[in-house]
Write a structure and sequence with these properties.
Elements lengths: L1 E10 L2 E11 L4 E5 L6 H8 L17 E9 L2 E2 L5 H6 L2 E4 L11 H8 L6 H14 L1 H5 L10 H13 L5 E5 L7 H16 L3 E6 L2 H7 L2 E6 L2 E6 L1 H5 L2 H6 L4
Parallel strand pairs: 3-8, 3-9, 6-7, 7-8
Antiparallel strand pairs: 1-2, 1-4, 4-5, 9-10
Helix pairs in contact: 3-6
């Protein structure tokens, strides 16, 4: 479904992503893990078109963002496709730190997630599915989203992304800032989303939990993929565990 080959991202003169390649097959739950600053979020943003592939010129200098490599989604090259077109194709980004429209209600946020859809019946069906997955959002549908707890805002962010009928859902650091009980609940819901038939690419630092639920994993450090495989295989490597996974 998704194939990235030799992706390199430079911000000004700093190399953030260094020649990485990865793939996600249809129906899989795949994780991209690694320490803070490894380049995980930048990778997702590059995949979903939120980092431009054209060099951005600042005041006549050669600084800015430059990218190389290829991204293929559902058999089509998308590395120079605008972000909204990528979303229309079904490659959806659920951002880090939730980012709800804080002055809008839960229901308004969810409807905003369905902006690509024109069929009202389809929107209502998606809304029913989101409320079934996250009953708490239904209970708080009229509540202003900025007043929700961190865990509820994360549920809302995922629910809003699901409203657009994703074929591949990219979820960035969903456990950030959450209490352990809520973190476990969010991970359970992500597993349920995979069981619904939605392919998921998950960026996370909570390795011990993630490795138990994923089909495959990539370990990113300093912009390079240093290991890949199933969770139990990666955890057998003591150097990898202690040096890169913090375990």
């Amino acid at each position: 479904m998704l194939e990235i080959n030799n992706l390199t991202v430079n911000y000004d003169k700093a190399m953030i992503i260094n020649d990485i390649s990865l793939k996600v097959n249809e129906g899989e739950l795949v994780s991209l893990v690694g320490p803070n600053g490894a380049g995980k979020s930048t990778t997702l943003r590059a995949i979903t078109g939120l980092v431009t592939w054209e060099r951005s010129i600042h005041r006549g200098s050669d600084e800015g963002v430059s990218m190389q490599g290829t991204v293929e989604f559902m058999g089509k090259r998308i590395e120079r496709t605008p972000a909204h077109r990528i979303a229309e194709m079904g490659l959806i980004h659920c951002p880090e730190r939730r980012r709800p429209f804080k002055e809008m209600s839960v229901l308004e946020n969810l409807h905003a997630g369905a902006y690509l859809l024109k069929n009202k019946e389809e929107i209502q069906e998606n809304l029913r599915n989101v409320f079934q997955l996250f009953p708490r959002l239904k209970e708080r549908s009229a509540q202003v989203s900025g007043t929700l707890s961190g865990g509820e805002q994360q549920m809302l962010a995922i629910g809003r992304a699901l409203m657009s009928n994703p074929k591949l859902l990219c979820i960035d650091e969903p456990s950030t800032g959450l209490a352990p009980i809520m973190r476990a609940e969010v991970f359970r819901k992500i597993k349920e989303i995979k069981e619904m038939g939605i392919t998921v690419l998950l960026v996370e630092q909570e390795v011990s939990t993630v490795f138990k639920m994923t089909d495959r994993n990539y370990v990113l450090s300093s912009g390079k993929i240093i290991a890949e495989g199933k969770g139990e295989e990666l955890l057998k490597d003591e150097v990898l565990r202690k040096t890169y996974l913090g375990m």
